[in-house]
Structure formats: C-alpha cells, structure tokens
Amino acid sequence: MELLNIAEKFDQYPGEELDCEQFVRIMKQVIGDCAMSRRDDFIMQLVDLFFRSNKTNAATIKFADLTSYLIEHEIKNYTMDATQLDMLYQESQDIVDRTPHNGQIEKIYYFEKIDKVILFETNMRVVRIYDGVKMKPEPSIPCSGVINAIEFISDRNAIAISLSDLTIRFYEVQNGQHRFLRTLHVPSLQRCLAYVKRRTRQLLFSGGTQGAVFAWNIELFFSFDYKSQPGDPDYVPNQDGPAMQGPGGRKQEVTRDQQRKEYITYRAEHTPWFVYDFIQCLAYLPNINQLATGDYDGKIHLWDLRQKQVDGSSEAQGSGGDTMKE
Predict the structure, then answer these.
(1) Domain count of the chain?
(2) 123 and 251 inside one domain
(3) Which residues pair with 309 in a beta bridge?
(4) Long-range contacts of range 267-272, CB-CB < 8 Å, 24 or more positions apart?
(5) What is the pLDDT of residues 1-59, one digit of tens each?
(6) Strands in the chain per DSSP E
(7) Residues 268, 121 share a domain
(8) CATH (domain of 266)
(9) What is the pLDDT, as a whole number, of residue 283?
(10) Per the domain annotation, does 305 fall within a domain?
C-alpha cells in the first residue's frame, strides 16, 4: 500500500479521522479504479481492516491506528515465518557432495562469474572445485603447500591460492578444467587475500604473519611472459643442465635474489603497511574505498586507499579470530 498517499487522504478530513465508509472510499481511491477495487470481497477486506486497526472500538480511526496495526501485523508474520525456517529450508536431496574429505572444511567460496564453488580443508594441500549448479565435483588442484586463502581475480578469470611455501599461485578455471598460470613469491605466509580493481590498477591485497599488508600489481604481474620455475606444477628441468639443488640434494624453488626482484617489481601502493600483529582477514569496502584488516589482537584497521594510510581502528569483540566484527 502507498502509505504516503493514504496519509494525505487522512489529512483532508476533520481531525484526520475517518469512519468505516470514508476509509473504504479513500483506500479505493489510492488503489485506483481497477477490477479488484470493485469486487465485493475486496471491499469486505477493507471493512475488516478498518475494524482490526480500530483497537479502541470507536466509530473512527486515525492514520496512526492504521500504521500501528500494519507494523504489528508484519512483525507477527515475520516471527511466525522465523519459527518455521526448518520447514522452509531443507537440505537438498538432489545436490549431495559425495567427495570424501580428509579434514575439517575451513572455507567455502562461490565465484559467480565462473559459476564455481571452491573449498579447502584445514591443513590440506588440495583445492576442491565444484560446478555451481549441481555441485558436481571437477578436477581438484593439488598444491605445493598448505592452503591459507583463495581469491578470485575477476579480470583474469583466475583464482589466486596463498600457500604455506610462501607463494601465491594463479590458476585459470573454466570448462571443468584448471590450468596453472604463474607463481608469485611473497616474503611471508599470507593468511588472507582480497582483489581490488581500481580505475588505474588491478591490485591483490594480502596480509599475514608478519603483520604487514601488501598490495601486488596484478596487471603488471600478468604483463610479462612467464617462464616456469622449479616448484611450479608444470616445471620441466632444463635439458642443458640439472635442476637447481639445495642442501641435501633437495630442489631449490627460487633464489633469494629472484624473490627480492619479484618483491620490488610487483609491490604497489607504497606497501607494506604494518599493524604489528598477525592479520587474520581482510576485506575491501568499495563504498568508502577502504581496506579493512582484522588482527589477531581483536582490532580492525581501516586503510584509506586514496591516501594510503591508516584511517582508524576499532576493537572487535573477543580476542581474535577469523571474522571481523563491529
């Protein structure tokens, strides 16, 4: 109902009070001259509404009486619906995950653009992928380290996976298959990721155990031709010589110089920004153009992406955790 129009109709009567006949007349005027307004059962519903709204049993009602009843009626209906949630929402019998899981499921993501459900388990090295319509399992992604976080890079149709071996690996996922794209080496374990597309840059923010927030220039990172390195899923040792060996004959993934070069080349936004505690989670707030980080000490820091500085902080309820709270 258009309450504003009804209120204006009430104002036209002395004392802003209406008897039953007047109430039915203005309600029909507000609704308009339609077939519904001429039906007898509809008129009886309006008469019934008049008397239900009239709690004092007076000959007239005020607009406040009507709105008070409508609000109370809606709250009552909402409460009744809430008590029946177990009837309204039931576990689907058609879509069942039959994949055996070896550990606790830590996080589940849904990426609408590629229509995929992606999850990983606690302390595991496998990313599981499902079709977004029927939850049909698709080929999983084996990883070189324990999975800490996953993010979708929408402009590349790629997912970024943060691993315990101090890498962020990028995969293209489509048509029921995945394809390794490239590896970014990071200075510390990154527990959380957030992709931010700005007018001039595509940035992947990460935060982790150093208490530092990094911004990685994704556009620049993908602009270079990538050559597979030792440790990459598709790496083939150079036939001209043996693969790089570390102490004890183990394969060495990358040299420190190579890590330092990547760090300097792809780091953006004058990062890192430090909070001096483990960063548990982060999220981009597009309406205010800020990045929120949740720390292990229970604090939330807001980073102004226009000024590249801390805007403020607030303390979360509790002593830490994986979710941010106001």
Answers:
(1) 2
(2) yes
(3) 304
(4) 267/214, 267/215, 267/216, 267/217, 268/201, 268/203, 268/215, 268/216, 268/217, 268/220, 269/203, 269/215, 269/305, 269/308, 270/308, 271/212, 271/213, 271/214, 271/215, 272/210, 272/212, 272/213, 272/214
(5) 467 778 888 888 887 888 888 888 888 887 765 555 556 777 788 888 888 888 777 88
(6) 17-18, 61-62, 105-111, 116-121, 126-131, 137-142, 147-153, 158-163, 167-174, 177-185, 190-197, 202-208, 212-217, 273-274, 279-285, 290-295, 299-304, 309-315
(7) yes
(8) 2.130.10.10
(9) 93
(10) no
* C-alpha–C-alpha distance, residues 3 and 66, integer Å: 10
- Please, are residues 218 and 204 in contact by the beta-carbon 8 Å criterion? yes
Written as six digits, the tokens of 54 are 């009239």
Tell me the β-bridge partners of 54.
Answer: none
**Domain region containing 228:** 105-274
Rounded to whole angstroms, the Cα distance separating 257 from 65 reads 76
Q: Are residues 119 and 77 in the same domain?
A: no
pLDDT at 322: 36
Q: Residue 314: inside a domain, yes or no?
A: no
Cα 212 from Cα 266, distance rounded (Å): 16
Position 22 in a domain: yes
Does some domain include residue 292? no
Distance, C-alpha 162 to centroid of its chain: 18
Listed residue (149, 148, 151) closest to 159, CA to CA: 151
Residue 60 CB neighbour total at 10 angstroms: 17
CB atoms within 10 A of CB 58: 11
The reply to whether 156 and 17 lie within a common domain is: no
Q: Angle at Cα 148 formed by Cα 299 and Cα 125, nearest 5°? A: 160
Write out pLDDT tens, residues 105-115.
889 999 988 99
Task: Please check whether residue 249 is in contact with residue 184, taking contact to mean a CB–CB distance below 8 angstroms.
Answer: no
For residues 243 and 253, give the distance between their C-alpha atoms in angstroms, rounded to a whole number. 10
Within this chain, do residues 68 and 141 fall inside the same structural domain, yes or no? Answer: no
In this structure, are 156 and 226 located in the same domain? yes
- The CA radius of gyration of the chain, in Å to the nearest whole number, is 30
